[in-house]
From TrEMBL:
PROSITE patterns: JMJC. Pfam families: JmjC (PF02373). It comes from Cryptococcus amylolentus CBS 6039. SUPFAM superfamilies: Clavaminate synthase-like. This is JmjC domain-containing protein. It comes from the Eukaryota. One of its GO terms (molecular function) is sequence-specific DNA binding. GO terms for cellular component: cytoplasm; nucleus. Residues 140-299 form the JmjC domain. Signal peptide: none annotated.
């Protein structure tokens, strides 16, 4: 089988890149309690890493690494460990073919991609399996995600994904997210495949574990957003094209380490070995004000883009009885869901379900008074919006959230 590693030229490029990375300044923990996480990272919204001891016992770490890596070096991947999932149809990005703000994408059986990597790597060096819902697929087949990994305890207060359990779920419905989708992703791709500059869905937190290989991360706090936008206000695709790389916090993530990306932080990620990673988007009560603000901005963008529709509705219905407003907000909410992935109903349903059934043990949660404070902050702000009056179906859910937080 051809080597899955980089070419000689690619390795020289990678070595130059790695040599330019400064000494690590981000906190790195072997163990992190939820209290420490809350105090030092969730509330101040700052990044950190967990050491490889947090993933060393994962079944995936044993199944997907070829033994024999030297200390400080990454393992070669053992793609035989992925063959049991060859029937999964996965999203594949061709990172050699940029397309607008992403890459050319296709969907194909994982087995076909593995065949290309194993038999013709030179023709498949740009192929990157991204956003593969491996965990949801495993659960839908009646098995448990414990065959792959274990979510670190400090990261189990997760309002976007099903409550973590390593075992098979009793019913298929239990594997459905409390939101509308699954936000547990698996990525796999050769050296120099990458994810362009972006911010995570909903303005959520995220964490990423390198099961195999190493990555370089460029991190940008929200305060540096103006440094990574072009004159038209659009994000640059690749920060490596910018002077001083936009002033990023640049991090080399070693094999086995987990990196935590705060809410609203833009980032770009480059594989410098053949990498297989497990990633979660998540949020919880400390993030609610930021998630709420992100949704408000999303609604503003939608409204501005269809102001002509608003005028047509008013021309047709007039403004006397207020019926125009109901139709207008229904239209905006429908488009907001398509644009942002959810709308006000989806947001409040997610909050309600997580208050009704906590996703984690009590010792992994913020103190109840703090959680109530964050929930009531967004309730109070929402009640000042016109949607509070117009969207009756959402009002009932918000009232339920208030009762659950009293």
């Amino acid at each position: 089988m051809p080597s899955l590693g980089p070419t000689i030229e690619q390795r020289a490029h990678i070595d130059r890149l790695v040599s330019s990375i400064p000494d690590r300044t981000l906190p790195t923990y072997q163990h992190l309690t939820h209290d420490q996480l809350l105090r030092d990272h969730l509330i101040p919204n700052t990044p950190f890493l967990l050491t490889s001891s947090n993933t060393s016992q994962w079944p995936a770490a044993k199944a997907l690494r070829t033994p024999g890596a030297k200390t400080g070096e990454a393992s070669d991947p053992d793609l035989r460990g992925l063959r049991q999932y060859a029937h999964h149809v996965v999203p594949v990005a061709n990172t050699l073919k940029p397309q607008f703000s992403e890459f050319e994408r296709t969907e194909r059986p994982l087995g076909d991609v593995l065949d290309l990597w194993e038999n013709d790597i030179d023709a498949a060096r740009g192929l990157y399996v991204k956003d593969w819902h491996l965990m949801a697929e495993i659960e839908s087949e009646g098995r448990g995600v414990g065959e792959v990994y274990a979510v670190p305890e400090c990261l189990r207060d997760d309002w976007l994904n099903p409550p973590y359990t390593p075992s098979p779920r009793a019913t298929h419905s239990e594997s459905a997210s409390t939101s509308t989708s699954d936000f547990r992703f698996t990525y796999a791709g050769p050296a120099l495949t990458y994810t362009p500059l972006h911010r995570d869905v909903y303005g959520s937190y995220s964490w990423s574990a390198n099961v195999v290989g190493r990555k370089v991360w460029w991190l940008f706090s929200p305060e540096r957003l103006d440094k990574i936008k072009d004159p038209n206000g659009e994000l640059y695709f690749d920060v490596r094209d910018l002077e001083n790389e936009g002033g990023a916090i640049k991090v080399l993530q070693q094999e086995g380490e987990i990196i935590f990306v705060p809410s609203g932080w833009h980032h770009q990620v480059l594989n410098i070995d053949f990498c297989i990673s497990i990633n979660h988007n998540l949020f919880s009560s400390p993030t609610l004000p930021r998630i709420y603000a992100t949704l408000c901005l999303g609604q503003n963008r939608v409204e501005e883009s269809i102001l002509d529709v608003k005028e047509m509705i008013i021309d047709r219905l007039g403004t006397e009885d207020g019926s125009w407003e109901k139709e207008w907000f229904d239209e905006v909410q429908s488009l907001l869901e398509m644009d942002a992935g959810w709308n006000w109903k989806g947001f409040w349903v997610t909050v309600k379900k997580n208050l009704e059934m906590s996703p984690s043990l009590e010792h992994d949660l913020p103190p109840t008074p703090l959680q109530r404070e964050w929930v009531w902050e967004v309730i109070t702000q929402y009640k000042e919006r016109r949607e509070w009056v117009v969207l009756d179906n959402v009002k009932d859910i918000v009232l339920d959230v208030g009762r659950l937080s009293t």
